[in-house]
């Protein structure tokens, strides 16, 4: 006989923890097992894991390939209720179809009251210093213990015949070839004993069984299973009634003052379920007794399943029942003793009360499975072929409602618990509104500050914000580490560095609405525009980084690390998906592309002004085909909104153009070029020769800081501002009547030399402070300067401060230095003042009209716009949109390199608005007015005809830049501009000098 070959024995890998100590294994298992939302039999379970994953993870922890050994160790943890089957029916199984959850700690020591609302009130009163943590299992798993002898090694046999290493040592020495430890495992140790049900084939005679086909036998077995499981379910509910509800109602186990409330909260409407299912059980039993071979059950089910509403009612309250039970068990020794006694009764079948409390919902989930088996073996011409699908559909509808209602309950319960557990730093407390009825916890999980950091950072993704906290303390509390991030102000990037420092250029979309089709090349919402595609490979430092960027003045950048690519992807996908939900829900405005990729590099757009001019449209049709004139020189360009695919056309070759405006009724183009205000007749512009218009140019002013055109005193006025650090000179001009010019038409030679003046002086005045903006009121000018807003009477040239210094509610503003006034809007009889940091209302006397109303901007706005009933604040990384009456955030539009080019607000009979305007023309300001048919408010008390009449002075466009794109902002779900639109073209200027600055 040939010698037995020496088996190769690999060195035993050292376990992550000492595998014999259950507490060590339990802690490692809890830290490593992945929890997720799982579905079993149509019911949804949160924070669950399946049996196969559990056995695999335990095997990894103890470094073994023997899954039976890992299963035994897992059952040792299960036996101490460290985790449990979601239905409490059986112990740990090595199956992907079986789901398990960890036992959770619940608050204790609360005073009782009545009703579900009272349950929440009791929960709210919890002091978490009294919360008991879930204890880790304790004990020694002897199969994995090491020898206590100091001389015992793996390669040298110990003196003791009971050494736990002996079998392994024998295997290493190849005294007997075997793959590992030799154990004899009973069937009961690895597989749960199955209670045999009464098979139909055993309940009938052999003659009856032989008289039907095999298909019919399977059908009868399926029907029989429906019937006997229904009897079992009713028996279980009667067990709750007889062994729990009745004794607790009459015996002195619970104090009498809260006895009935406790019974109601724990067992809720079990009596209703017993009534409904007793009727179904009796009907099925009666049908079974009529004939040995049951013909049909569909009609019986259709008479009963429509009345399964008690299951929904029970499922929505089940979590509160578990909470009351656990709380009472932990705080009442008499009740705890009663629980132990009842659970030892033979009627309990070794199943704890929680197992019976879950049976109503699990029974509802089993109906579709049982009935589908019946349907599978039912002939096509049988009445049940139509009846059973109807019954299944009805049950699934109830099951769906149970999932929804129980999900709402669990979500609210967890949020209330979390709200009690949060601990903010002193002075940083913030109301996350976790008690709101519609608040939702989307996802939660741990991340790490760094790969070398062993402590986990817990993240909670709500439907409105992201919260970063430190993992639980011994009192089950969370310490808030950073300011919560509103999802509208959150950008994420799968890099370990600030993506704003990354160089790169995204693919350019085609002109038109920014839709999903032409935005495929861009990152999804919430992803940083310059963020690279997430890699499936770990970072060189180890792990998978996620960078969270909080936009705004109080923002920050935080990089955390996920252990796996799947974990990082789950976080990114969850955040992006919820941000998309928020955007669709609050979509008031949406951008659409006017031109993209044309103004790149140093050639950037500074300003814009819309106009409706047939002459310009005709000129665009004959534009030069030469590409040189489009790219080499800077100047004034025109873009045709009727044909967004066409590139902008250069109409004037000018240097350093920082501002442009169009007085369309006077056919006049005003340009601020190299600090000089120049006017051009629109008819002199020639797309084929950008220098042709220069021949009819008229210089109005030099050394100009900025200019502003608007209506005041019923006149069209142009204010030319020369500002210095100590003073400001403002020259107010008005266009010269063109008809009078026609009567005094100059000679052709004189026209070529410059011709008549286009603007004449109306008023000129001086202010002894630096000014940064001009705002037109009905009869007065409002000047924004370093002292605040100043009102100037153009008839008397008297000036006074807008705010009354006697108003003590304005002390917060008067005592601050360097507060920058930026915009003022008239809303009904009030004025909305917008500053760089905040906004508030005043009345016509300069007193604050709403003392408790104020907006604190999330960002640092560089310009504003008004589109009733919303005010828009533009900052380089996002547009902040708020409701002007509530002050609440209505929408956030993120972007990069954002700059408002033009915004104007047409006045109505009760709402006149003026806007901020800086060195770069319409670099800040108002917007368009929303047609009254789109909203219904008590402020629109007078006729709204001006909203529909297009006044030549009113332009309702909002134009801005995003990266290298010029885009318009429009109300969501409104059509793009067409040939018939009133605004048919837009004048755009740009400069190649990046040093152009805005007056601060």
From TrEMBL:
Residue ranges of region Disordered?
A: 498-528
Q: Which GO terms describe its molecular function?
A: guanyl-nucleotide exchange factor activity
The UniProt keywords, alphabetically, are: Coiled coil, Guanine-nucleotide releasing factor, Phosphoprotein
KW Transferase (keyword) present: no
Species of provenance: Hydnum rufescens UP504
* Gene3D superfamilies assigned to the protein according to its UniProt record, in alphabetical order: Dbl homology (DH) domain, Pleckstrin-homology domain (PH domain)/Phosphotyrosine-binding domain (PTB), Winged helix-like DNA-binding domain superfamily/Winged helix DNA-binding domain
Domain spans labelled CNH: 602-908
Top-level division of the source organism's lineage: Eukaryota
Q: Know the name of this protein?
A: Rho guanyl-nucleotide exchange factor
Read off the InterPro entries from this record.
CNH_dom (IPR001180), DBL_dom_sf (IPR035899), DEP_dom (IPR000591), DH_dom (IPR000219), PH-like_dom_sf (IPR011993), PH_5 (IPR041675), Rho-type_GEFs (IPR052233), WH-like_DNA-bd_sf (IPR036388)
Question: Which residues lie in coiled coils?
Answer: 205-232
| A biological-process GO annotation | intracellular signal transduction
Reply yes or no: does the keyword Transmembrane apply: no
Residues in DH domain copies = 218-405
> PANTHER family, from UniProt?
RHO1 GDP-GTP EXCHANGE PROTEIN 1-RELATED (PTHR46572)
